[in-house]
């Protein structure tokens, strides 16, 4: 019985060794597909973090000192241009206006008397001129008092939405105190920073852009229905970041966007002589991308690459490989560095076309 059991065990062992040997022979005989990067002009959709600001957004501040007598609006309310927002207690300014008017009336009477006396050669013409100057000064004081009184009624300079109201009724207001801020959200600006290389590509290949239109991806991931237009670029680069600010304007007919929001501007950028490889030909170690370059002897050599841009199923490579290199297309997780392989070259264009999505 023991001899029979030993014989069965030996047979199983020999069978397992034979299977492993066949498996190793099969792996050794495997033919790995390789390809080369392709070089072509393409475009990418690049996303930039953007700050959203109303085209019109101002602070509403007091121009006179006094007690806050009336608040005619509420936070978040839409107001029209010229609508009264606040009133600062006006009694003092009413009194100053009445005083100025009384002094102007007195100066008017003095001028009339001086004119009569001057016409009768009782006083000199200089007396009449001095009376005229006194009247002009009094009229100026009236206008100044009227201006001060008008400042007690604070009105909206344009239509928009009222923001936070930091002060309450009865508060003592000093000149320059913040009462609220006002935002006109009919149109909005988005500000976003672009790197120097991307800025140069954008400016030097203007004819390839097609248009100045950009998309806005809102904070919830949805695309804002209106397209924006790039209007201006700042005059200087930021020395610390190496970026320059772009500004795009979007119409906001439904007032969906508000001042202070964030989002992402999606801009089409031309890339000339882009070195393109399939994503599946790469592998990653500690956030670094690698490919296997196959030398003339069929030996796989690991090569670190720098990915500039990511496209669907594709990478645009900045450095690490060149257009003439042959790279391993499939099996990157099985192959080891310095392993000799049997390979079969595949046309790069056919490889790209076989992917679900490809470069434009």
TrEMBL record:
Cellular component GO terms held in the UniProt record: cell envelope; plasma membrane
Multidrug resistance protein MdtA-like alpha-helical hairpin domain span: 91-146
Subcellular location(s) of the protein: Cell envelope
Domain Multidrug resistance protein MdtA-like beta-barrel, first and last residues per copy: 188-268
Superkingdom of source: Bacteria
Pfam families to which the protein is assigned, alphabetical: Beta-barrel_RND, BSH_RND, HH_MFP_RND, RND-MFP_C
Segments forming domain Multidrug resistance protein MdtA-like C-terminal permuted SH3: 273-334
Annotated ranges, domain Multidrug resistance protein MdtA-like barrel-sandwich hybrid: 57-177
GO biological process: response to antibiotic
GO molecular function annotation: transmembrane transporter activity
Entries under NCBIfam families matching the protein: RND_mfp
Protein family: Belongs to the membrane fusion protein (MFP) (TC 8.A.1) family.
Stored PANTHER family: ACRA/E-RELATED COMPONENT OF DRUG EFFLUX TRANSPORTER, MULTIDRUG RESISTANCE PROTEIN MEXA
Protein name from the UniProt record: Efflux RND transporter periplasmic adaptor subunit
Source organism per UniProt: Elizabethkingia miricola (Chryseobacterium miricola)
